[in-house]
Design goal:
The complex is a heterodimer of chains A (about 325) and B (about 350). With about 325 residues, chain A is mostly helical. Chain A has a domain at about 100-260: MetI-like fold (Orthogonal Bundle), CATH 1.10.3720.10. Helix content of chain A is about 75%, strand content about 0%. Chain A is built from 13 helices and no strands. Chain A has helices at about 1-30, 35-40, 45-55, 60-75, 85-120, 125-140, 145-160, 175-210, 210-220, 225-250, 255-260, 265-275, 280-305. The longest helix of chain A is centred in the middle third of the chain and has 36 residues, at about 85-120. The termini of chain A are close together. With about 350 residues, chain B is an alpha/beta fold. In chain B, helix 5 crosses helix 6 (about 135-150), helix 6 crosses helix 8 and helix 8 (about 170-180) packs parallel to helix 9 (about 200-215). The longest helix of chain B has 18 residues, at about 200-215. Chain B has helices at about 1-5, 60-65, 90-100, 110-115, 120-130, 135-150, 155-160, 170-180, 200-215, 225-230, 250-255, 260-270, 330; strands spanning about 15-25, 30-40, 45-50, 75-80, 85, 105, 185-190, 220-225, 235-240, 245-250, 315-320, 325. Chain B folds into 2 domains: about 1-10 and about 45-70 and about 90-235, 3-Layer(aba) Sandwich (Rossmann fold), CATH 3.40.50.300; about 255-350, no CATH class. In chain B, a hairpin with a 4-residue loop joins strand 1 (about 15-25) and strand 2. Classes of the chains: A mainly alpha (about 325), B alpha/beta (about 350). The interface between A and B is medium-sized, with 21 and 29 residues. The complex binds adenosine-5'-triphosphate and magnesium ion. Adenosine-5'-triphosphate binds next to strand 2 and helix 2 of chain B.
Chain lengths: ~325, ~350
């Protein structure tokens, strides 16, 4: 098991290296010169050139890459072209804001998804199954920014129960008032994970329930809840893989939902960086998100192998 | 106290008693009449072999004894008593106390019958904990003894193995250990050797017979294989289209079959060694359980069939105590199916 984990960790190194190259290449090879876009055309050429020099944009691309990678390694993310603030500050601030939403949204979506999926499978073919499956399909297919707007209209505008917009706090929520700000965006964001997880769990549990070993479990006289435990442990590995992906997506932030709720998260940060051609912010954000994705994947792999010995290759 | 006594099978009372069992599956397109009136008794310590073609209802019979069929689409009629328990009248919770404790099952495919993500040890121990309420470590110790009893080499290590890490024969041994973990009164074995190599088959059969004698269990042993049935069974029931068409002591059924279907089965396996051989197809097609003929369900394939065979299903005719056939012509003495001359085969038990 330890050897397996170590191997997974080692695989991550070339993956991350590849990602960093790709990100760097895509951003720097995109058409249009960064400085030309950043500075107004009436600025004299000397000033533009001095800017290029200051940000090492005049050097060979591979030299720039190696220098950038070296700085990344020691945790130096550079400063934003646009605001002049350290990238790390902007990035981790926004990522933190997103995490405050993503974590509860993931927990809510995953728990609901697992419960609905398992219940639907256990009541296969009944009206409960149809109801839960319909809920899941609606969850995946409704545009969630639209759901966000509708929720705001109902709970903030009409009922006046919850705040319509904004975080209302910095860092972590510490009071009931802060939590109220979380409710609507968290519910909105949890819809897609809920939908996809419940569909997968339903299909999975149905498949497992049709297997012969479930007959053995009943033939042994086990209680239903112990049989359920066996079923869920069998269903867990593939559900975990999907949950890892979904959590990764949530961390990437959703520009649409963040806009609806005026939430300063990583989706908004990335969007702004793209429009502003803010190369240091953009490349650091993508690399950090990719690194988080890779870490989640390793975690999922290890958990899967813990649950299912056949996956310990 | 009286409750306990009432649940103890008395010496005269059979340990399994099935009366007029009918099982139908309600499917969307049709109703499958899988079991159509099966009755039998099994004494403690006896081995009943059920022999029959694929689709004749052997597995359904076994599963209905433990009520393991999918309840939504299964309709069961008749009465089943096992070790003093009215299986057909029990609620689900009471049933779960009987399953695994009084009556246990071994399945055909040991690969798919064990949970792939739990160790063998856990799968055995959880059953013991469930029924006997002892601690997990004590149950684990018992699991180890059980693995030794079924002669699994390096049992202590195997306790921590997962099913995919074991060979087919080893898995079936583990399955037997699991089934015997709570000392059941009745063991149901559904083709426990069909999925195994011939040499492994023989080992498993010998092991099962030895354990059956040591523990004094009653066993119902389902098989395709005449040789295996001869090897293990005290009595044989021949199944066709969801009915026992012939029941009797093993030697009698083999030497002097009392139903044309039994005779056909035996002649189709008469050549060469019977051991490890599947039944060969007999002429004609197996019956369609969605629309059984009014008369004897074997009549369409029977060389001896007459008009009257096609009118009513022949009732069970008792030829001798414990010897039953469902053939009117044999019962009336019109047909002597005679001996298929099996004397040179190894009916004698080693
Ligand atoms: N759960 C079920 N739903 C619907 N039909 C079923 C079900 N289980 C069994 N049957 C049908 O009942 C009939 C008897 O099946 P059964 O499995 O008892 O045959 P078998 O004698 O055990 O055959 P084999 O030797 O192939 O195992 C078959 O026609 C089968 O299709
Ligand atoms: Mg079968």
């Amino acid at each position: 098991m330890w050897a397996f984990t170590l191997r997974r960790l080692l695989y991550a190194v070339p993956v991350l290296l590849g990602v960093s190259m790709l990100v760097f290449a895509l951003i720097h090879l995109a058409p249009g010169d960064v400085v030309d876009i950043l500075v107004p055309p009436e600025v004299p050429k000397e000033i533009a050139d001095s800017l290029r020099q200051r940000f090492h944009l005049d050097e060979q691309l591979y030299v720039q890459y190696v220098a950038w990678l070296g700085r990344l390694m020691v945790g130096d993310f550079g400063v934003s072209f646009f605001t002049g603030r350290p990238v790390a500050e902007e990035l981790f601030g926004a990522l933190g804001n997103t995490l405050v939403l993503a974590l509860p949204a993931a927990v809510l979506g995953f728990l609901l998804g697992i419960a609905l999926g398992a219940l639907a499978a256990y009541n296969h073919g009944t009206w409960l199954d149809k109801l839960f499956s319909a809920t899941a399909i609606i969850g995946v297919s409704l545009p969630h920014y639209w759901v966000g707007i509708v929720l705001v209209a109902i709970f903030a505008v009409v009922l006046n129960l919850l705040p319509a917009q904004g975080m209302g706090f910095e860092g972590l929520p510490t009071s009931w008032e802060h939590v109220q700000h979380l409710v609507l965006p968290v519910v909105t964001l949890s819809l897609i994970p809920m939908g996809v997880i419940s569909r997968l769990v339903r299909a999975n549990v149905l498949e497992i329930l049709s297997q012969e070993f479930v007959g053995t479990l009943h033939a042994k006289g086990l209680f239903s809840r112990r049989v359920l435990y066996h079923t869920l442990k069998n269903a867990a590995p593939s559900a975990l893989a999907l949950m890892g992906l979904q959590f990764g997506y949530l961390l990437g932030g959703s520009i649409l939902v963040e806009t609806v709720f005026n939430w300063p998260g990583s989706g908004g940060l990335m969007n702004l960086a793209i429009f502003r051609r803010d190369v240091p912010v953009l490349s650091a954000t993508i690399v950090v998100l990719a690194a988080i994705f890779v870490v989640i994947n390793i975690l999922v792999d290890v958990l899967q192998a813990l649950l299912d010995p056949r996956m310990r290759r | 106290m009286s409750q306990v006594l009432a649940n103890l099978p008395r010496a005269t009372e059979p340990v399994v008693s099935v009366e007029d069992l009918h099982v139908r599956f309600l499917l969307r397109e049709a109703t499958v009449a899988a079991i159509n009136g099966v009755s039998f008794d099994l004494e403690a310590g006896q081995v009943l072999g059920i022999l029959g073609e694929s689709g004749s209802g052997k597995s359904v019979t076994l599963r209905s004894l433990m009520r393991l069929l999918p309840p939504a689409r299964t309709r069961t009629e008749g009465r089943i008593r096992i070790a003093g328990h009215e299986i057909t009248a029990m609620d689900e919770t009471a049933l779960r106390h009987v399953r695994g404790a009084k009556v246990a099952m071994i399945f055909q495919e040991p690969m798919v019958a064990l949970d792939p993500v739990f160790t063998i040890g856990v799968q055995i121990a959880e059953t013991i904990v469930r029924h006997e309420g002892i601690s997990y470590s004590a149950a684990n110790q018992r699991a180890l003894e059980l693995l030794e009893m079924v002669q699994i080499p390096s049992a202590a290590r195997r306790l921590k193995s997962y099913p995919h890490e074991m060979s087919g024969g080893m898995r079936q041994r583990a399955m037997i250990a699991l089934a015997l973990s709570c000392r059941p009164t009745v063991l149901l074995a559904d083709e426990p050797t069909t999925a195994l190599d011939v040499t492994v088959q023989i080992q498993i059969i010998l092991l099962l017979r030895q354990l059956q004698q040591e523990l004094g269990m009653a066993v119902i042993f389902v098989t395709h294989d005449v040789g295996v049935a001869i090897e293990v069974a005290d009595r044989i029931a021949v199944m066709y289209a969801g009915r026992f068409v012939e029941v009797g002591p093993t030697e009698k059924v083999i030497d002097t079959p009392a139903h044309p279907y039994t005779a056909a089965l035996l002649t189709s396996t008469v050549l060469g060694s019977t051991f490890g051989r599947r039944l060969e197809a007999i002429p004609g097609t197996p019956p369609d359980l969605r629309a059984l003929p009014a008369g004897c369900s074997f009549a369409p394939r029977c060389r001896h069939a007459q008009d009257r065979c096609r009118v009513h299903m022949p009732p069970e005719a008792v030829l001798a105590p414990g010897r039953i056939t469902r053939c009117v012509r044999v019962a009336d003495g019109e047909l002597d199916l005679g001996s298929p001359n099996l004397s040179e085969r190894s009916i004698a038990k080693p």
